[in-house]
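Structure first, sequence second, as always.
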C-alpha cells in the first residue's frame, strides 16, 4: 500500500512579507479583494496578517491583499 500525504502549498511574496514585518505595530489601511480594512497591524505571518480594527481582529490572507498604506 502506498499512501500519499497531502501537501500544503501557498504563495509567499518575500518582498511584501518583509515590508509588512517592517511596519508591524503601525496603523495601516489594507485594500483586499473584498474591501478595505483600517486599523493597527498586529501580526504578520507568511500567509496572513492580523489587523485590529474597532476592537476586533481581522485575519487577512496575504494573497487577498491588493495594497497597503502605512499611517503614521
Amino acid at each position: 500500500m502506498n499512501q500519499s500525504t497531502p501537501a500544503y502549498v501557498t504563495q509567499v511574496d518575500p518582498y511584501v512579507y518583509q515590508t509588512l514585518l517592517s511596519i508591524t505595530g503601525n496603523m495601516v489601511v489594507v485594500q483586499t479583494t473584498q474591501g478595505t480594512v483600517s486599523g493597527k497591524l498586529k501580526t504578520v505571518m507568511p500567509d496572513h496578517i492580523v489587523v485590529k480594527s474597532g476592537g476586533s481582529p481581522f485575519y487577512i490572507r496575504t494573497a487577498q491583499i491588493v495594497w497597503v498604506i502605512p499611517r503614521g
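Margin note: DSSP finds one helix and five strands in the chain.
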